[in-house]
């Protein structure tokens, strides 16, 4: 080594270190989204995908997060847990994502949680069942209200109406089976008695036999349908065809106009617990959630030309919780971001006010749910002041 090179070497090494640090500081933040964009759960995954892509583009146009742009990796699992697992592995191992916004259904989410835990990468999922967030896993979080919460909100409303004897007709899919189970655990708490308990498969196209049994059961005052997808719409149409007179309650799994379209006039009078997003403009002006849900609804509908659903709202909440956590962490460091997600407090989302903790990776309580009724083909808020 010549004296000149010897003198220059420290400067060259320092410059290289500076460039490496600068490059790392401005590297893309990588987010993986594994969603059910097509298939039987497309009514969940499609608005989730549109929402995430729309807001990521907006965030990037405004300078990104901490000066870094978001690079989004989107995969469509078609509602298949095996595909979700395959794409989750690809996102983690090949794409090297810093976080996952993934899991449209309970089944696909349950396939993704172990991957995120093993890789120690934050995951915010959009599944409905309580098992997608309980027991608490270190790296797993969730934005939608749980099926247990839906049961309690429905039973709360039944009790207010003096209706305590019910029939149950549940989907056999992961969400429907979980919600049925959760409902059964809180019947005693609300003084509800289940007099009939029927179910249907994901591919069933006629639930008349099960509903006929329920109709023939003496003393039933209302019917509860834990389920999502096309099943509840078929139940609703068959319900009307059989001229069953008692009230019908659906789950938050039908929180989109697609359900009303599929069920048609038979949906009139159906009640369900749902996020405030479905009745954004109908909220009282003093409702602290109104601005958030109206802004999201307006943006989504203007940019997509489609009616808003609660499912896209869950994706919005997940993305914004992640973005705020990264801002507080001042980096995309996985462990630091995970810690900041867990510290989320007073976050006003489309699903409600989120207050997470080490023992609660959802952060919503029962007040986040609104009880809605379908009237004249639209959602109506029950007890708007409550």
From TrEMBL:
Residues 29-363 form the Leucine-binding protein domain. GO terms for biological process: amino acid transport. Residues 1-27 form the signal peptide. It comes from Pseudolabrys taiwanensis. SUPFAM superfamilies: Periplasmic binding protein-like I. Keywords: Amino-acid transport, Signal, Transport. InterPro entries: BCAA_transport, Leu-bd, Leu_Ile_Val-bd, Peripla_BP_I. This is ABC transporter substrate-binding protein. Pfam families: Peripla_BP_6.
């Amino acid at each position: 080594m010549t004296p000149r090179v010897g003198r220059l070497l420290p400067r060259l090494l320092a410059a290289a270190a500076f460039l490496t640090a600068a490059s790392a500081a401005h590297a893309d933040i990588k987010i993986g989204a594994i969603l059910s964009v097509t298939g039987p759960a497309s009514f969940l995954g499609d608005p989730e995908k549109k929402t995430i892509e729309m807001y990521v583009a907006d965030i990037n146009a405004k300078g990104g997060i901490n000066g870094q742009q978001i690079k989004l990796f989107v995969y469509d699992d078609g509602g298949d847990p095996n595909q979700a697992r395959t794409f989750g592995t690809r996102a983690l191992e090949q794409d090297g994502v810093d976080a996952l916004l993934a899991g449209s259904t309970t089944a696909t989410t349950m396939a993704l949680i172990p991957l995120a835990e093993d890789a120690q990468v934050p995951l915010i999922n959009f599944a409905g069942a309580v098992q997608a967030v309980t027991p608490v896993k270190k790296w797993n979080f969730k934005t939608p209200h749980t099926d247990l919460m839906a049961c309690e909100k429905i039973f709360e409303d039944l009790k207010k109406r003096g209706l305590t004897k019910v029939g149950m007709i549940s989907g056999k899919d992961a969400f429907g089976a979980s919600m049925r189970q959760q409902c059964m655990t809180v019947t005693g708490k609300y003084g509800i008695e289940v007099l009939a308990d029927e179910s249907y498969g994901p591919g069933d196209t006629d639930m008349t036999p099960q509903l006929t049994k329920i109709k023939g059961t003496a003393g039933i005052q209302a019917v509860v349908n834990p389920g999502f997808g096309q099943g509840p719409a078929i139940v609703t149409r068959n319900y009307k065809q059989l001229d069953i007179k008692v009230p019908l309650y659906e789950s938050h799994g039908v929180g989109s106009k697609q359900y009303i379209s599929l069920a048609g006039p038979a949906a009139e009078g159906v009640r369900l617990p749902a996020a405030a997003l479905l009745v954004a403009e109908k909220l009282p002006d003093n409702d602290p959630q109104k601005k958030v849900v109206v802004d999201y609804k307006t943006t989504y509908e203007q940019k997509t030309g489609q009616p808003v659903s609660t499912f896209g709202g869950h994706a919005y909440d997940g993305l914004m919780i992640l973005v705020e956590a990264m801002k507080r962490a001042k980096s995309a460091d996985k462990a630091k971001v995970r810690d900041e997600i867990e510290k989320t407090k007073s976050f006003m989302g489309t699903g409600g006010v989120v207050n997470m903790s080490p023992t609660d990776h959802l952060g919503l309580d029962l007040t986040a749910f609104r009880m809605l009724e379908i009237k004249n083909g639209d959602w109506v808020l029950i007890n708007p002041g409550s």
